[in-house]
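Figure S7 source data.
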Amino acid sequence: MPSPFRIDRLQIRLLRLPLVHFFETSFGRVHDRTFILVSASGDGMSGLGECVADADPFYSAETTVTAWHIIKDFIAPVVLGRTFQDPRDVFPALRQIRGHNMAKAAVEMAAWDLAAKQQGVPLQRLLGGTRAWIESGVSIGIQDSLDQLGDKIETERAAGYRRFKIKIKPGWDLDAVEMVRRRFGDIPLMVDANAAYTIDDAAHLARLDPFRLMMIEQPLDYDDIRDHARLQAGIQTPICLDESIHSPHAAEDAIAAGACRIINIKPGRLGGHAESIRVHDLAARHDVPVWHGGMLESGVGRAHNIHLSTLPNFRLPGDVAASKRYYAPDLIEPGIEVRADGTIPVPVGPGIGVTVDWTRVTAVTQQSHEMRA
Ligand code: OSB
Ligand code: MG
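Tokens for the predicted magnesium ion complex:
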């Protein structure tokens, strides 16, 4: 049962970490990630949250700079010195601030970690998750050649991953999928377009149907529901929405409209764990499976994602994979590892249950700001 906790100190740090391998989506290629790490303290303990906003407003409207501003000037004054009965009360307390879900989520998730640490229980216990492990899949970016894509899939298959997602865009779609099916047969395969198409591409996207993909993720615009419903009516491949699902309300609209058959949950996009649980529960009531997305998180955000992924309607392998695919070294020691059977064990310590390498954090910190009640 939740017990009250007070936040009397917030620290935000701007970090920059180089990626092990570049990551390319339909909106561009990145070689490193800049993000904000939030530390929320109370009663001598601290919780951590990671803000998934990027340096550029390409996946979402938020950026590291907007999130820094919103956390410092608007979220901190609301949460500092305040006693919360339950971490579920943090998101509603920020209701006056419109949007900025990624900024809110970073603070909200730090509050969940703090609350779980104060109670001495793993975060999954507070979230209502039960499984001791999660099923892991990989998201593979657009490569320089189809051969390079094939080789990447080969490597990830050998590592045991249970589902393969490839990024697509106009000009890198049918040929890529055809190559994967020819080279790897009937592996669990899906594609993610990150909003690269329009409804005028419906006939083109229908040509993916014969490849029996698990799903196509976010083919159309980031805030669209209506055209996704029209597209879904005309293709067999199930549509999964990512960018469009920014709230439980949006999820309800999407399900009601028939715009998707599967939902990708990212707590950063939704405003934190509490809102993610609401979307998870809503989807379960409609028999819509969910899976956990990823935002190239460091070990801190990754650990949060693992705990959330243990709720029962996370029925498909997610994008939560091993640290070493992204950062070497990661901010946590040891990093998140995937077992040979493609599963990741849930960290068992209090809170997110991972050990942060503070020397490493300090080495990659570009800016830091502390706020007290
Ligand atoms: O659309 O799921 C996405 C990464 C950055 C921004 C958006 C997305 C992604 C990924 C990578 O697909 C998921 C991961 O491996 O963390
Ligand atoms: Mg996506």
